[in-house]
Amino acid sequence: MKRMTKQGNWWELAKGLFAENPVFCIVLGLCPTLAISTSLDNALGMGAAATFVLLGSNIFISAIRNKTPDKIRIPIFIVVIASFVTIVSLLMQAFTPALNKALGIYVPLIVVNCIIFGRAEAFAFKNNVIKSTLDAIGMGIGFTLSLLLISSIREFLGTGALKLIGITLISAPIEPAMVFILAPGALLVMGLLLGLFAHLRNRKYEKTCCEVKG
Amino acid sequence: MNETLHLGITLMVISLTAGVALAITNYYTSPIIESQKERAMKESLSKVIEADSFRETNNYSEAYDEQGNAIGKVLKVAAKGYSSIINVMVGIDKNNKITGIEVISQQETPGLGAKIKESSFLQQFIGKTLEELKIKKDGGKIDAVTGATISSRAVTNGVRQAIEQSMGINQTSESNAEQITNDDSENGLDNEKGFEDDNESDEEEIEEERDEIKEADESEDREDDEEDD
Questions:
Q1: A16, A93, B83, B133: least buried by Cβ within 10 Å?
Q2: Average pLDDT of chain B to the nearest whole number
Q3: What is the pTM of this model?
């Protein structure tokens, strides 16, 4: 199978989904992940908000990367990211108040979500706008998918049903285990999934390693 | 110097851009957010009283009907329950009767005290007057939750407190109205006299305090002298 060229633009987007998944591979932004992932609605809402901020900050920072002196790049990142988070927060308060209440303090805390700052520093500041946009979309979708994965496990085992925007997707007659909705459950699920992803990556690494060695 | 200026100006430009973007967003979203908050408040207050609009003050919310007449109040009271503070929202009409009641928060014993938040217990408060508001053990008409006398008593006392507060508010607003009409009829001389009297008593008090301090100082000096001896 032809491998995707690492330099191609398509790779910038696709890497955020699995190979460089921000939550399970680069392991960034764990605090909101653990706190928010109790239901599918929360996961979607947080993923959308964070992707919006990531997109905005990556594009803006990439656009001004040649004009900003290196010495003050960090205050500039913070101002840009905080502005986008405030805009998203105001929009959520106005148009999705129920979701805003559910996410609570974690909407303003998107400012210190390491994914956003990390991508700004590691990628957007050094690449052009097109690549930064694709990177942001990829990382954002990867973050959202990770949240959805964790939330579906926690919500199903913790409440016995999966609900999305009011519609019950699956409902099973199992006795729900509240621990999965609470903090210990978050860490349990997170730890097991991290182990799973590490195992998958190791297997892939071994395979390519052996291919190279022939 | 040139570099510092360049850095400073770059930061300033970026911050200005951010400020403008935020101001624009705020301008368009703040009316929507305001109406959201009003709607949420109206929804929660309408649970205990049927009204068209509300006006918030420090301690209570005034309820108005469609024509703008005041038809009652909503008060929030905190009562000390068995194992927690029970926060209750009470709707009171103009005759000091309960129109609705809801328990906002409580941490009583589940299955016993926690039953005070159920409508089967709270329903009986509606339409009651102050005299009837005690649990049957205390001579009133409220059926307490079986096995949760203290929690039931706490809620009942909280509602009594709400009615008394409401009556107190009615009284002060009536007496305020009386005072205003009284002042208008007299020409204010009485007020000035009262002011002068207050002044004199203040001065006397200050002199008395100074005398006391002097005496205290003198007695301290005397004690020191005695010790030296």
A1: B83
A2: 78
A3: 0.69
Contact indicator for B145, B116 with CB cutoff of 8 Å? yes
Nearest CB to A83: which of B10, B22, B30? B22
Between the alpha carbon of residue A67 and those of residues A62, A125, B14, B93, B144, the distances in Å are: 10, 11, 11, 66, 73
Structure tokens at B134: 């005690």
pLDDT of residue A191: 94
**3-state class (DSSP) for residue A54:** helix
Structural tokens at position A182:
């609470």
Instruction: Tell me how many degrees the CA angle A99-A115-A36 measures, rounded to the nearest 5.
Output: 30
Give pLDDT, residue B209: 52
Residue B69 touches chain A, beta carbons under 8 Å: no
Q: Is the dihedral of CA B2, B8, B14, B16 positive or negative?
A: negative
Which residues in chain B are contacts of A90 at CB distance < 8 A?
25-26, 29-30, 33
Q: Tell me if ipTM is over 0.85.
A: no
List, for residues A75-101, the tens digit of each pLDDT value.
999 999 999 999 999 999 999 998 998
Dihedrals phi, psi of B102, to nearest 5 degrees: -145, 140
Tens-place pLDDT, residues A124-170: 999 999 999 999 999 999 999 999 999 999 999 988 888 888 787 77
The residues near A60 (Cβ < 8 Å, ≥ 6 apart) are A80, A84
Q: Say yes or no to pLDDT of A6 above 90.
A: no
Cβ pair B29:A94 closer than 8 A: yes
Phi, psi angle pair for B146, to nearest 5°: -60, 125
Per the CB < 8 A criterion, the answer to whether A115 and A139 are in contact is yes
Helix (H) or strand (E) holding A24: none
The amino acid sitting at A131 is K
Best B30, B32, B37, B41 residue to mutate vs chain A (most A CBs within 10 Å):
B32
A35: exposed, middle or buried (C-beta count within 10 Å: 0-12, 13-18, 19+)? middle
**Burial of B188: CB neighbours in 10 Å, binned 0-12, 13-18, 19+:** exposed
Counting Cα atoms < 13 Å in the Cβ hemisphere of B4 gives 1
